[in-house]
Amino acid sequence: MSSDANILTVDPVNGTTTATTNGHNPVKKPLKAGTAHPLDPLSPKEITAVSLALRKYTATETDVKAVKFINTYLLAPAKRDVLAFLGIPIETGKAPEPAPGSLPRRAESEYIDVLKGDAFHAELTLLDGEWKVDHVEKLPEGTQPLITLEELCLSEEMLRKDARVCKLAADVGVTPEQLHADGWAIGMDDRWPLKLRVQQCLLFARYGKDENLYAHPMDFIPVLDSNTFEVLAIDFASHRLDKENPPSTKPPAMGAQLKRERIPPPTMKHEYLPDLLQKDENFPGMRKDLKPLYVVQPEGVSFTMRGRELEWQKWKMHIGFDGREGLVLNTVTYNDNGVVRPIAYKLSVAEMVIPYADPQFPHPRKFAFDVGEYGMGTVANELSLGCDCLGTICYLPGCFVGHNGQPIIIKNAICIHEEDAGLLWKHTDFRPGGRAHSVRARKLIISMIATVANYEYIFYWQFYQDGTFELEIRLSGILNVYVLAEGEESSRYSTQVAPRIDAHFHQHLFSLRVDPMIDGLKNSVMETDVVPSEYPTGSDENYAGNAWTIENKIIKTTSEGERNWNAETDRRWTIVNPNRKHYASGQPVGYRVVTCAFPRVLAREGSWIRNRAPFARSNLWVTRYAPGRDWPAGKYVPQTHVAPEDSLEGWMKGGESIDNEDIILFLTVGTNHIPRPEEWPVMPADMFRITFKPVSFFDRNPSIDVPSTQDEKSRHAFGTANAPVPQTHAVGITPEAEAVVEATGHGAALNGHNGTHTSNGANGLHPNGTNGTNGTTVTNGTNGTNGGSCCH
Ligand SMILES: [Cu+2]
């Protein structure tokens, strides 16, 4: 931990915020204890109380004998009530609606009768300090709420006790203790009635403590009942050594056995933990040439927290959390010189699906919905100070319900901190004597990391001083792999990343739900194509042929609300408020979606994946907001065969107006992942961003008022302004090598140290010469930023 660490923490039970220096001495009392925001997630105490109320209800009103709780979460008050309660106007410039005296505190819960397998949904209200059950609904047969982390973990334990599984493992030299299972949703498999709650278990062997078990994939995949943990089937993928008789990709009938040889797991180790790596005699050792790099904020952070409400650089928002979506942002507003301007009511990753490409049974069952099947919040990491985020950190807790009804608390589920973000803007007047001015950017990052079995998803919501905000998603962790037999080659659908370790191609398709309120609730979406002029070269309208322009189109109804990106026309979408126009551009105020991360599902029409995840077929969906329109693939996702009517496709029907209405957007973003050997045994993070940029929203550059301050801690790397050193240092040349360079004179000749290099010329006319930053006497021009402030 840095000695300068100044830590803000939130009491995971009461939600109060405290600040400490060095993690020990309180320097500030809670900003406001137990600050009540109507979208605050259920506290651990509330989750306990809800469970208790439901236990009482089932004991007295029903014949259910034993339940396991699956998910308990806030049932949010109506949108307009929340805005009125918070004093946020539903139209910029107008007074907020009259605040309700109080808002009901309500909760939803799903639980399962473990004896009969029935699933229930309940709604409760807090009345006079006590949770009352409003109603309980038995869900239609076959409806399965989230698969829980506990169910996934229990699968491993139960498989080790199954004689058939142990025998199959022993046949390839794996003991029960070495057997490890990653529980997955079943995806699709018609061999069992939907009422059974089923999971498939991808198996791996682990031969030593903490070692990388994914290096030892096993060849069989048991299917389990998640309530009774009975092993229902054991599936094998065929292997392709017999090229004359390639196996069918059709799933086998129940009980059918494939004619195939067993494949023992590869035993070669592929470690990533340093202590285990060091045991490998071929490992050259950890790098030793990295010097410390600290992120230090000696005066503390520039943001304030009031409960879970954050304010930073004119931005204000509420940071929510639930077991299903994990990190969510609510009621995002921007204070534009005293005018509170609503931007978004809610921002969240509402769904995602990871379809794998290999058609050979049982691999097509791999298309996990990591939000709707597992819950991104339930697998959120306990973040570690000085490791996951650097600098001065505020953590927020997350909480969800366990099978027993008790809360499971992640103390540091969400990290909030600031980072330098490079240059915000700069201009140099290139004329002799002209001034240079540079302003550095700061970003505020609100992050969460979720581990879904082998993968890590790292979510960064980032806010900037120029009114931009974005979601950056990083993908790390370990590739999902299957075993190859000796001599078996990868198929067309995978990469052999290490001997006999086959990583299937797959997609990561996220559904980003945006509930906008750009200067108010009434918004539209404008589609813009960038196109060449329709007038030919040589024509009166376009003689030189240079003309190009934009074509704007407002998406009017849900019939045209399903849109796709077009790289050729550099298509972009802007969420606009048609009721407010920019004073100069005449365009409606808006926020534009900027990203190239627009893959679409590659599975064919009629595929299992497309039927269950229609959202993945298109990049943008715009529909009307209505309470409950939260889950693009449906509220209950596990074991669906098609997305239910109450999901995104259903909400697009009827041709409702989405122009100047309260709308929501679902953006399908992500990556096509073709595994590389360099992503083995652990993936360097892949990354993409979805950026929301103000367009005609602010009168001018809203960051014009960001001060330019010279960082007092910045230093010359290898000398001082008065004692310049050869730039050979800057490229990491060792002193010994440098001596050689100087002796030959090449260093001086190459880098202009002698003042003769033209690009660093002393006449001050070359742009590089006019604004040098290294403070040396010769290599700078006449008006550089050297040695002074960033502003001259
Ligand atoms: Cu991937």
TrEMBL record:
Recite the UniProt keywords alphabetically: Copper, Manganese, Metal-binding, Oxidoreductase, TPQ
Top-level taxon in the UniProt lineage = Eukaryota
The UniProt regions of compositional bias labelled Low complexity, in chain numbering, are 768-783
Q: What are the boundaries of the region Disordered?
A: 1-40, 753-792
Q: Where is the Copper amine oxidase N3-terminal domain?
A: 145-236
A molecular function (GO) held by this record is: copper ion binding
Write down the required cofactor(s): Mn(2+); Zn(2+); Cu cation
Active-site residues, Swiss-Prot/TrEMBL: D370, Y455
Example of a GO biological process term: amine metabolic process
Comp. bias (Polar residues): 753-762
Catalyzed chemical reaction(s): a primary methyl amine + O2 + H2O = an aldehyde + H2O2 + NH4(+)
Enzyme Commission (EC) number: 1.4.3.-
Class in the EC hierarchy, top level: oxidoreductase
Q: How is it modified after translation?
A: Topaquinone (TPQ) is generated by copper-dependent autoxidation of a specific tyrosyl residue.
Give the 2',4',5'-topaquinone positions (modified residues).
Answer: Y455
Tell me the cofactor note: Contains 1 topaquinone per subunit.
Cite the InterPro entries for this sequence: Cu_Am_Ox_Cu-bd, Cu_Am_ox_TPQ-bd, Cu_amine_oxidase, Cu_amine_oxidase_C, Cu_amine_oxidase_C_sf, Cu_amine_oxidase_N-reg, Cu_amine_oxidase_N3
Q: Which residues form the Copper amine oxidase catalytic domain?
A: 295-704
Q: How does it assemble?
A: Homodimer.
Name the protein family.
Belongs to the copper/topaquinone oxidase family.
Name the record gives this protein = Amine oxidase
- Taxonomic lineage from the root: Eukaryota, Fungi, Dikarya, Basidiomycota, Agaricomycotina
